[in-house]
Amino acid sequence: MDIQTVVNTYFILLLVGAVICFFIGFGLKKKFNSHKIGFYTTFILSLIILVFLIQWFKTASAELFIGTLPWLFNQAIAIILYPIYLAFTWFVLKRTNIKKF
Hints:
- There is one protein chain.
- By secondary structure, the protein is an all-alpha fold.
- It has helices spanning 3-32, 35-63, 68-95.
- The longest helix has 30 residues, at 3-32.
- Keywords: Membrane, Transmembrane, Transmembrane helix.
- The chain crosses the membrane at residues 6-25, 37-57, 69-93.
């Protein structure tokens, strides 16, 4: 497996994990009618997935002898996108909680 395949797999798994965590949080938000429960669930699950994927990427990139800068760049992108994902999730869950008359 070359480095581009590892990086692509890493970001695809991050995206899939984010979507799955969002829908789990959205389902719990609908069930308990509380956007905070949905957000906290999404936050905890996505943080666990992020930590596991960072560890996976570390071991997969170590096998390919990737340099420090590309490894750091890919981790930084994931960590920078994570608060943006959380803000998006918060606003979507909060917006769907508004009752329409």
